[in-house]
Automatic annotation (TrEMBL):
Keyword Transport: no
PROSITE patterns, sorted: INTEGRASE (PS50994)
InterPro entries referenced in this protein's UniProt entry, alphabetically: Integrase_cat-core (IPR001584), Integrase_H2C2 (IPR041588), Retrovirus_Pol_polyprotein (IPR050951), RNaseH-like_sf (IPR012337), RNaseH_sf (IPR036397)
Swiss-Prot/TrEMBL GO biological process terms: DNA integration
Protein name: Integrase catalytic domain-containing protein
Any one of the GO CC terms: nucleus
């Protein structure tokens, strides 16, 4: 049968076998089977609670960061993505060309060179759970 979800496993067993308390026993087995838990675990961390984001009171105090990927490669460096940074006080935006294959360290260096060195260190950085960061940090 392989490693299926609990519901699919019960469907398969129900069509071929029956015994008293079979559903309860099957659930207990699946919930204690190490291989079943690894095969069917939910990937990633649970999302946090939504939080209120206060309005920025000063320039470059709060920023949002996100990536635009899937762009046609261009320029002498063949960039195929952009790191988008929005400064929340003025709503101004910077688009930093980058590569989809860049690592978290590459992105940190871009951020350092293009933002921190010219604007200072933001107090709050709002970012989604992009795999580039969740996989390395």
């Amino acid at each position: 049968m392989g490693r299926m979800s609990e519901d699919r496993t019960k469907e398969g067993v129900a069509s071929t076998a029956w015994w008293t308390k079979w559903e309860q026993e099957l659930s207990e087995y699946i919930n204690t089977c190490e291989r079943c838990q690894k095969a069917n675990r939910k990937h990633g961390k649970k999302y946090g609670l939504l939080q209120h984001i206060e309005e920025a009171k000063h320039p470059w105090e709060t920023i949002n960061m996100d990536w635009v990927t899937g762009l046609v490669a261009g320029g002498k460096e063949n960039y195929n993505s952009c790191l988008i940074i929005v400064e929340r006080y003025s709503k101004s935006m910077r688009c930093i060309p980058c590569h989809k294959e860049d690592t978290a360290m590459d992105t940190a260096l871009l951020f350092w060179n293009d933002i921190i060195s010219t604007c200072g260190v933001p107090k709050i950085i709002i970012i989604d759970r992009h795999p580039k960061f969740t996989s390395e940090f």
